[in-house]
UniProtKB/TrEMBL annotation:
The Tat system comprises two distinct complexes: a TatABC complex, containing multiple copies of TatA, TatB and TatC subunits, and a separate TatA complex, containing only TatA subunits. Substrates initially bind to the TatABC complex, which probably triggers association of the separate TatA complex to form the active translocon. Belongs to the TatC family. Residues 278-287 have a biased composition (Basic and acidic residues). This is Sec-independent protein translocase protein TatC. The lineage of its organism: Bacteria, Bacillati, Actinomycetota, Actinomycetes, Micrococcales. Keywords: Cell membrane, Membrane, Protein transport, Translocation, Transmembrane, Transmembrane helix, Transport. It is a multi-pass membrane protein. Part of the twin-arginine translocation (Tat) system that transports large folded proteins containing a characteristic twin-arginine motif in their signal peptide across membranes. Together with TatB, TatC is part of a receptor directly interacting with Tat signal peptides. GO terms for molecular function: proton motive force dependent protein transmembrane transporter activity. Residues 1-26, 268-301 are annotated as: Disordered. It is found in: Cell membrane; Membrane. One of its GO terms (biological process) is intracellular protein transmembrane transport. The chain crosses the membrane at residues 39-61, 97-116, 128-150, 176-202, 214-232, 238-258. It comes from Brachybacterium muris UCD-AY4. One of its GO terms (cellular component) is TAT protein transport complex. The gene is tatC.
Length: 301
C-alpha cells in the first residue's frame, strides 16, 4: 500500500506543469524549443503562400514580361528562353517559392519579434504594434519600388547588346527571375531599415544624434545603392529614388531626436520628484573629523 501511494504521488508530481519564471527567463533548451516552433510556423506560412503563388503564376508571368515589351518598343528585341523540357515546371516552382517568401514576410517578421519579445521589458513590448504597422507597408512599398527599378534596369542592360545582324538576345528566365526577386527584396529591406532605427531608439539602444552624425555616409550609400540598382541614363530617376530613401532615414532621425528629448525631460522630472526623505539621505554629507580636539577626551577624574 505504501509503495502504491508513493507511486501515485510521484506520477502526480510529474503531471504538474513547470512553473514559469516570473521574470520571463528561459533555459537554453526552452530557447531552442521556442526557436524551433517559430521556424516551423514560418515554414508553414511560406508553404501555404507558395501554394497560392502556384495559382498566381499566369498573372505574374504576364507582369514580368513588361520590361521586355518596353525594350522592344525602343528597338531592343529580347526573348525569354526556357532551356530544357522541365524548365517550365522548374520556373513555376521557383516563382511559387519566391511569392511564398514575399507574401509571408509579415508573418516571418512577426515570429522574429515574438521570439525576441520575452527578453524585453513590458514597456518595450508596446512598440510592436507601431513597428509592424509601419514596417509591413514600407516593405511592400519597397518591393513595388524594386519591381519598378527592374523595369528601368532591363532596357538599359539590353542596350549594351551589339545591334548587328545575326546577334539575338536570349535570356534565361530563371536568371531573370532571380535578378527580379533579389532587387525587390533589396528595396524592401532598404525601406524597412528606418523603422528598425526608430525601434532601436525607442528601446534605448541608439540615440537620434548618433544617427544624425552619419548622414553624409547615408546619403552616399543611398545614391550608390540607387545607381547600382537603377542605372538609368537620366539623373532625375537617380535623384528621386535616392531622395525617397534618404527622406525615410531623416524621418527616423527626427522621430528619434524627438523621443530622446521627451525621454530626457521625463527623466529630469522624475529626478526632481524624489521623495523628500530619499532626497535628504542623498544630500546628506558626513563631515570628516578634522582635528584631534574633536576626539572624545577622557573625563577629569
Amino acid at each position: 500500500m505504501a509503495s502504491d501511494s508513493q507511486a501515485r504521488r510521484t506520477a502526480k508530481k510529474r503531471k504538474q506543469p513547470k512553473e514559469k519564471d516570473p521574470e520571463g527567463r528561459m533555459s537554453l533548451g526552452e530557447h531552442l524549443t521556442e526557436l524551433r516552433n517559430r521556424l516551423v510556423i514560418c515554414a508553414v506560412a511560406i508553404l501555404i503562400f507558395a501554394i497560392v503563388g502556384w495559382f498566381l503564376f499566369p498573372a505574374v508571368f504576364e507582369a514580368l514580361q513588361r520590361p521586355f515589351r518596353v525594350a522592344a518598343l525602343g528597338g531592343r528585341e529580347a526573348d525569354l528562353n526556357f532551356q530544357g523540357v522541365a524548365t517550365g515546371l522548374n520556373v513555376r516552382l521557383q516563382m511559387s517559392a519566391y511569392l511564398g517568401l514575399l507574401l509571408s514576410a509579415p508573418i516571418i517578421m512577426l515570429q522574429a519579434w515574438l521570439f525576441v519579445m520575452p527578453g524585453l521589458h513590458k514597456n518595450e513590448r508596446k512598440y510592436a504594434i507601431g513597428f509592424f504597422g509601419a514596417a509591413i507597408p514600407l516593405f511592400f512599398l519597397g518591393c513595388a519600388a524594386g519591381y519598378w527599378a527592374v523595369n528601368q534596369l532591363v532596357p538599359v542592360l539590353l542596350s549594351f547588346t551589339p545591334d548587328t545582324e545575326g546577334v539575338q538576345q536570349l535570356i534565361k528566365y530563371d536568371e531573370y527571375l532571380a535578378l527580379l526577386v533579389k532587387t525587390m527584396l533589396a528595396f524592401g529591406i532598404a525601406f524597412v531599415m528606418p523603422v528598425v532605427l526608430v525601434l532601436l531608439n525607442f528601446l534605448g539602444i541608439l540615440r537620434g544624434k548618433s544617427m544624425l552624425k552619419a548622414w553624409r555616409w547615408v546619403i552616399f550609400l543611398c545614391f550608390a545603392f540607387t545607381a547600382v540598382m537603377v542605372p538609368t541614363p537620366e539623373p532625375f530617376t537617380l535623384i528621386g529614388m535616392s531622395a525617397a530613401i534618404s527622406s525615410l532615414f531623416f524621418a527616423a532621425v527626427f522621430i528619434s531626436i524627438y523621443n530622446d528629448k521627451k525621454r530626457d525631460k521625463k527623466a529630469g522630472l522624475e529626478a526632481q520628484d524624489l521623495d523628500p526623505d530619499q532626497a535628504s539621505r542623498n544630500d546628506h554629507v558626513v563631515e570628516p573629523i578634522d582635528a584631534p580636539s574633536q576626539i572624545d577626551k577622557p573625563e577629569n577624574r
